[in-house]
Amino acid sequence: MWQAAGVSDEDRLSRAQARTILGRVFKMAAPFRKTMYIAFGCVMVTTATTLSAPVIVRHGIDAGIRARDTGALNLSVAMYLVVVSFTYVFGRLLFVFVNRTGESFLRLLRLAVFRQMQRQSMAFYDRNKAGVLVARMTADIESMSELVQWGLLQFLSAVLMLVFSIVVLLALSWQLTIVALLVMPMLVFSSIKFQRDSNRAYLTVRERVGANLSALQEGITTVRVIQAYAQEDEVKSKFKTSNRSLFAAHE
């Protein structure tokens, strides 16, 4: 299945390898643990305020407008403004802390990868194409940065949103909550399928990006030899094929 998608066995990770890599990521992110905890706290506050806003609006309509109670309506408006203010402030703090942590982690990761590349033998560079290595030093590091910056926080936010939403729905109407949860198995199945398909697509695109960069790098570094032996058309055809393959991977 992976070979059919254009993914080599070397790029396929088992669950144990994935856990090992995530463990290394968390170990490297240890110096930024304090800011990550602050960001998690901001996520909890923004999630709670986001869910409380509709409840406040409901209270304002039922206890204020329908009951013609000006005091209850004014209280609901004041509470809503406070909630919106909290959402904005903690959302801004979340943005600042997440980006500061992510960029700092990205800087350390790039330095670590570059040091590791410098320690490799010449045989290593004979076995691996330069374009593939460049692609992994750029695209893979950016993907890891997105995981550290937003991936984990979005996952935590989604879990908190789901849990808090179920609690609020149960408090309002447990019958409607059961009806709403009937679609959960379908959503879980669709999410798992999308995750597997997106993993295969990402690895395929990464491999073809590396091949495309390799063709480009070879065409530039050996341009004198290519021109000396009049191989321009052959090199152009090779790069055109690689570029078309990369384009097809995004379809």
What can you tell me about this protein's structure?
With 251 residues, the protein is mostly helical. The protein has two domains: 1-178, Up-down Bundle (ABC transporter transmembrane region fold), CATH 1.20.1560; 183-251. Helices cover 86% and strands 0% of the residues. The chain contains nine helices and no strands. It has helices at residues 15-28, 33-66, 70-118, 122-127, 130-172, 174-181, 184-221, 223-228, 232-249. The longest helix has 49 residues, at 70-118. The radius of gyration is 26 Å and the shape is elongated. The two termini are 18 Å apart. The model is unreliable at 1-7 (pLDDT under 50).
What keyword list fits this structure?
ABC transporter transmembrane region fold; 9 helices; single chain; 86% helix; 2 domains; mainly alpha; 251 residues
- The total count of helices amounts to 9
CATH fold call of the largest domain:
ABC transporter transmembrane region fold
CATH homologous superfamily classification of the largest domain: ABC transporter type 1, transmembrane domain
User: Can you count the beta strands?
Assistant: 0
Judging from the principal axes of the Cα atoms, what is the shape?
Answer: elongated
How many angstroms does the end-to-end distance come to? 18 Å
Percent strand: under 5%
Note poorly predicted spans: 1-7
- CATH class of the largest domain, named Mainly Alpha
* Sheet having the most strands: none
Number of domains: 2
